[in-house]
Amino acid sequence: QVHLVESGGGLVQAGGSLSVSCAASGMSFTDRAMGWYRQAPGKQRELVAGINSGDSTNYADSVKGRFTISRDNAKNTVTLQMNNLKPEDTAVYYCVTGRQGLRFGFESAVEYWGQGTQVTVST
Q: Beta-carbon neighbour count of residue 2 at 10 Å?
């Protein structure tokens, strides 16, 4: 059974940095695309960043240049480094895994979701 466990969320001031990590188990990690979605209250869920098995990445326009997604195939983890955070980045962040099309924002390619971790950016 696939398990995705996020860690590292929290409260940070605007302009600060935070990283969230996801530990995956129960799957062949190197074969799968990984990504991070987020959902803010009253807003639609959106893909923040995705990375495929070949380390190609995609980002939402709103986070380009500020967020970096990376994966460690030896540890079965994926990390989202978030810099220059803004109040509008406040959301629950979900780790996801699935088929390679995941990194382009095709939610139909997502096969498993983590439980989510809260990121709150204060002004």
A: 14
CB 50 within 8 A of CB 63: no
Enumerate the H helices of the chain as residue ranges: none
- Give yes or no for a contact between 8 and 119, defined as CB atoms under 8 angstroms apart: no
> Tens of pLDDT along 58-108?
999 999 999 999 999 999 999 999 999 999 999 999 999 999 888 888 889
- List of E strands, 26-101: 33-39, 46-51, 57-59, 67-72, 77-82, 91-98
Which residues, at least 6 apart from 36, have a Cβ–Cβ distance to it below 8 Å? 20, 22, 47, 48, 49, 50, 69, 78, 80, 93, 94, 95, 96
The closest alpha carbon to 103, from 72, 59, 64, belongs to: 59
**To the nearest 10°, the Cα dihedral for 78, 28, 60, 68?**
30
Residue written as token pair 């590292």: 8
CA count, 13 A, side-chain hemisphere, 123? 1
